[in-house]
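Task card 7
Instruction: Convert sequence to structure tokens.
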Amino acid sequence: MIADGQLLRFRVANHRSLRDEQELSFIADGDGDARLVHPDGLDEAVLPVCAIYGANASGKTNVIDALAFMRSAVAYSQRMWEPIGGVPRRSFALGVDAHTPSTFVAEMMIEGARYEYGFAVDDEVVREEWLRAWPNGRKQEWFSRDEQTFEIGRSLHGENKVIEALVRPNSLFLSAAAQNNHEQLTPIFQWFAARLNPLTLSVDRVFSSSVPQWWGQFAAPTADDDGARSARERARELLAAADLGIEDFQVVEADRAVPEASADGSEEPVSSRRRRGYRLSFAHRTSVEPRWLDLRDESTGTRALVGLLPTLLPLLAEGGLLAIDEFNSLHPMLALALVQIFQDPARNPRGAQLLFNTHESSLLGNLLTDPAPLRRDQVWLTEKDRDGATHLYPLTDYTPRTNENLQRGYLQGRYGAVPFLGVFGAEGAVREST
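Output:
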């Protein structure tokens, strides 16, 4: 199966604490590692996993938040942003002119071709937008935009003039094109809308509406068809690989009461209606026979993984990027299991990618597995300067030795990106300490 849908590079400027342009790269530093991904049409090897480390409030989350904003703008700017509501960006708040644009650029592989798509926005309008493609390795300018002036390249076919007339000053051409079924641009739109998945890992996620609905396929009358059986088996395999002691799961329909407010708007409900829901339970290994636990009785780590599976399993089957904020909420062994899944070509045949931020330093060392789970070029660091601006940089900037203990070096502050803690002296004065 051909690897597809990889993010190669992401650049962002003037988003939250990311004041100056910062770049995150998934291009591998060298080849010859079985964990690396080799997309069709690209000469370079690609990393399946990248991790961002740094102190609290150093801007780790803002890198993933920038990806989330770019995805949202592509998916929703034409359809859901208010026509006269401006652009809902979040620019750097400390000392940057309000008119300075925020810029977002992604390079990705889609169906054997490399693309670069980007845009710049201020609080009111889209200032710039462009899309370049390299089919068969040759560069093509598909379109570019300077506010409401558009230049369409000869290689971009379709009803481009019609779409130009529909694009609002605060919406993206790519978003408008997808809403009008532009055949050539739809795969790029779908990469952002369906294959780029930024999310915050939370135990509460499992009780959101979309997660139980996905699990509900195993309770429906079609649960025995080939698709559902395949999905069930993949879910069971992943739960088993996470070493949670889970052997099986079951899903049953379970109606629940939903209170309805009174007609006069008082807070006291006067009746309730029934809404279809699903009850999940899991069989755990014991020395005698499996013991079934309801989802609400499971550990926080198990619930977090259950909430992740509806996104994770389709991604492994189709390719794309999963970007997880708060990865350290997982137990180190569970975090290791997810990293290993993405780095195993047998379980990840489409070359899906994982990006996460974390404080969990064990993934840098060889206590969990030897060799260490992460290569040096898979580790990125964030640090804030005195102006409150985040700097994102790769660990390889420090050229660590081949046998260097990265976990120890990180915790000792050898690569930066660790907090400077205040230590109270005898008279209550605070002095800086690493």
